[in-house]
């Protein structure tokens, strides 16, 4: 793993109409690295995350995550791959309002056959929740949690399947400054503990020094319409 | 699918009041048409069974339906009275068994039917407790009358006076309950049977001497009672043939007798008419079905509208959950996972509604057949 | 096919023989007619105890229930056995044996009474001992024959034969009554009870009755009343429904009255039957009139 990059992107192109929405000649991120992605709105940051996770298939190019050539997989294979290997953290948390914090953490397991709930999974969910300071709050529904707590639940949800790659899309965008640092701490901590690579889209330049590396989308040849 | 069921249940439970309303609405959409159709069917079956079991009816000229409803269902609208001689005439003709019915009085809110023992044979009424009618004044109760009023053999019932100030002769009659009939599921369960002669006593046509009980002072309700001590003094005035009855059930010996008997009442200027209850009832049943047709359409339209409302409500909830579905997809859910989720929820709600509807229908079952006809015959 | 049917009928015959028609009667002469007409085909019940007067007997509930079980209930009509008007009896079993001869019934003086403050009203009374006129009895026997025939699916020949025998007895009795009418028509008699209206009409006799208890010796007032009647009518014969005490016979004999026993036959006689007892009575009456 150490000698090979966790993320390897070559000749990536996604067209939108006549023009390119996103074009990346080459991108390589080593395993365990914490990378911030910055750039103007509409530059294709989220599109990149979607391609890396297999939600979108590029028109051209290759994407490799770990040992898996994502761009060669079928729809179904990409879904399975995503469920097992990618952890998502969203700006709006995207928690399920009718499930308790505990069930929100287990939510991906309810959605797909790729994951199944075992005793071990439940124990890990408890441990994970405890490690981010959610003990005693697992029975609460999202409506009864603070913003910071919600994002912690979302982080637990992303980490429970032990993903190789964590994709955070403006994960701290809706948090107050104190919570931003705290959540980033937790994200770093947990990614490190899990040995996962972290790719975080952010607009918050104050946070950039904390990352190992910053990818600026202005560097890519984004062709305007 | 188990994951989908779990999530569906969690969603339903989270919105339990909304879900309950949905379940009730769907259950109503199922229950209403089913019940309407069953009420009509039960009424139809009941009406035709009773009519089929009643060969011919003779009564005073007037509404044929009133005659049938009065003689078969002991309804409140009575045809004009007929002289008892009309019943004897049928006997004398040798064409049919004639069973007189005289319905005018009530006791305990139930109609008192004055008739002859032959009525019990015709209807196959069996005494469950006590004995049958034997002497003047005896009363035999239908099963429902006994059960609902808590009456049993040895109790007494008092006929309702037609007019409290009727000092001309008819006092309420106090009668011993000598028997209770086995239940039949017919209007006979809700009636009180006495000998037709006993109803004539109530009408003041037959009476005894020094037979009024209850004290002499004015204001205290007085009643008559036929006892072994005073029965010898009971007597009837005038010609028995002129005494009133409301209908005669005629059971012809054979088809030929039936035809001849019917022929005797063809003269429309005569005082009596003869009707075939089945024929009259089939007319009513046709009306019932015509009403049912209209009702069916109303139910269909209302049901359809309600179903659309339910679909709309479900659609809106699913629209509200579009974002959840999108998240689910990003977290690795299959293309059909969302569909599964919606299906599971529809299944749970629909299942609960159908079960509720089934329970309601099942519980209401025993009340339907009995009350159905009453709804129609009131 | 016909053979099979005949065999079936033969096999069924004993079973049918056991299913005898149940007939109940309210007066003894009707029971006698039913027995005579129906023979073995019927089972006749006449439940009035020997010491009771069938005209006033009141059956208990069990006795009425037994009547209710009958296939045929023979009523005398004319208001006889008043209890039948106050009991519930199955109309399909009821046969009023005098229904066809209501125009030949004899009305007696009316009974008047009132209810409380109401105006008095009266009930027309009818003489009830029809069978003491053999011709009336014949009409009743015809009615019994008709009633039995209607309810029996087989055995019509037996019924017809029985009816012929009963008719023969009644014809003989009618002849006896007519003979009395021919020889002594218009003769005035006295009677201990007002029960001989039909006999009187059949034999064209004029009977004036007192109303005495038949087992008691008449007191002075009664004798005085009788004496007055005797002088008024010039009667020489007194009819008794039962054998009176010797003292009673002597008392009326003192007035010049010969006592003649003419049982009214409402109840079953100790010896003989309706035909023999009435024949003997008519013979006695005939003999007494001849003196």
TrEMBL record, chain A:
InterPro entries: AAA+_ATPase, ABC_transporter-like_ATP-bd, ABC_transporter-like_CS, ABC_transpr_LolD-like, MacB-like_ATP-bd, P-loop_NTPase. GO terms for cellular component: plasma membrane. PROSITE patterns: ABC_TRANSPORTER_1 (PS00211), ABC_TRANSPORTER_2 (PS50893). It holds the Pfam family ABC_tran. The keyword Nucleotide-binding applies. GO terms for molecular function: ATP binding; ATP hydrolysis activity; transmembrane transporter activity. Gene3D superfamilies: P-loop containing nucleotide triphosphate hydrolases (3.40.50.300). It comes from the Bacteria. SUPFAM superfamilies: P-loop containing nucleoside triphosphate hydrolases. Keywords: ATP-binding, Lipoprotein, Nucleotide-binding, Transport. Residues 7-225 form the ABC transporter domain. PANTHER family: IMPORT ATP-BINDING PROTEIN, TRANSPORTER, PUTATIVE-RELATED. This is ABC-type lipoprotein export system ATPase subunit. It comes from Rubricella aquisinus.
Automatic annotation (TrEMBL), chain B:
Coiled coil: none annotated. The keyword Membrane applies. GO terms for molecular function: transmembrane transporter activity. One of its GO terms (cellular component) is plasma membrane. InterPro entries: MacB_PCD, Macrolide_Exporter_MacB. Keywords: Membrane, Transmembrane, Transmembrane helix. The keyword Membrane applies. The chain crosses the membrane at residues 297-318, 339-363. It holds the Pfam family MacB_PCD. Residues 19-199 form the MacB-like periplasmic core domain. This is Putative ABC transport system permease protein. It comes from Rubricella aquisinus.
Automatic annotation (TrEMBL), chain C:
Its main location: other. GO terms for molecular function: metal ion binding. Residues 1-17 form the signal peptide. Pfam families: ZnuA. Keywords: Metal-binding, Signal, Transport. It comes from Rubricella aquisinus. It is found in: Cell envelope. This is Zinc transport system substrate-binding protein. GO terms for cellular component: cell envelope. GO terms for biological process: metal ion transport.
